[in-house]
Amino acid sequence: MPLALLALAVSAFGIGTTEFVMMGLLPNVADDLGTSVPTAGYLVSAYAIGVVVGAPLLTALGSRVPRKRMLILLMALFTVGNLASALAPSFGLLVAGRVLAGLPHGAFFGVGAVVAARLVAEERRARAVATMFLGLTIANIVGVPVATLLGQRLGWRATFLVVAAIGVVAMAALARLVPRISLDQQAGLRHELGALRDRQVVLGLLTAVFGFAGVFAVYSYLASMMTEVTGLAEASVTVVLALFGIGMTLGALIAGPLTDRALRPTLYGSLAALAAVLVLFDFTVHVTWAALATVVVLGAVGFMTTTPLQMLVMNKARHAPTLASASNHSAFNLANAGGAWLGGVAIAAGWGWTSPTLVGAALAVVGLAIAVTAGALDHDRHEPSRVVATSDSVPRYSEVG
Length: 401
Description:
- This protein has 401 residues and is mostly helical.
- The protein has 16 helices and 2 strands.
- α11 (237-261) packs antiparallel against α12 (263-284) and α11 (237-261) crosses α14.
- It starts with a helix and ends with a strand.
């Protein structure tokens, strides 16, 4: 694998750390800024709003910017957002800093996925994209627990200063390791927007919204489920989250080769497995060892959906995959917000702490139904991709089907 993928993975590590670390720092932020923990929870939503808005907006604005330069600019904005968060004197400005930090998230992964796919041979594209996503999964194993501990010991501002430093390192790695990749001659906002009109792209995005919402319906309340139902101590929550991160990493490692070999079967299988594991979790959550094992498997099957979904929208967007790829991350964050909301509705309705597992299973089944429908309507699904050489000797891929 090219060293450029390491630069993309380091960037993804920083993004993953800042996205998820806030969940563990909410009490610290609330105490320091004189607000309640539920109010501090808006900081999680603020980041998600930044992702949803920034993914299509920044990708559209940068449609004519060379890919390497675009990646560095997006990581610079990410760094500024985290620095602003660290220095925010009030809760309102911290919310603004979180939105700013979230803006480049989707656009970076959208552009980064396209770049990763063009760095390798056609039969290894999904593995290259999965390698970039490994940075995101490893952040949940190492970055988030360490950053949470740092914030608890030295103050939450120290966490965001460290993440900003990671952003600087990532920019240096991108500048040094990522080659220049020429834009398509027809690249531009109108061309990118045209790709979003493809029925398969729209169905792929809907699959992401509903299917991945099944993961977040449970993940958002995983800590409470493990303490209230399984009976673990609050101090053990970081271990549970790390186990989920280990599962995510395994899922990314498995999904890459499987997606290269058979994209749609991998998507169908991961969504079906996700629904089954969520139903199983409703039973295993009552037994400590079984609950912990299921957390790992849940992380694995949940994250196995991301690579085939990413490749699907990139493939079907044909010669303008960047905006579709970035929009996929808006879909993932809508899934985050929607899954968390529906899981909360179930708990508030008095259905119990384990009710999000069944809500999540239902959402995964809806996502699977959309994916199967898209497959049935896809008349080009049997046609192969081809590699098109570029003047700068960097492989470029375009879909024939």
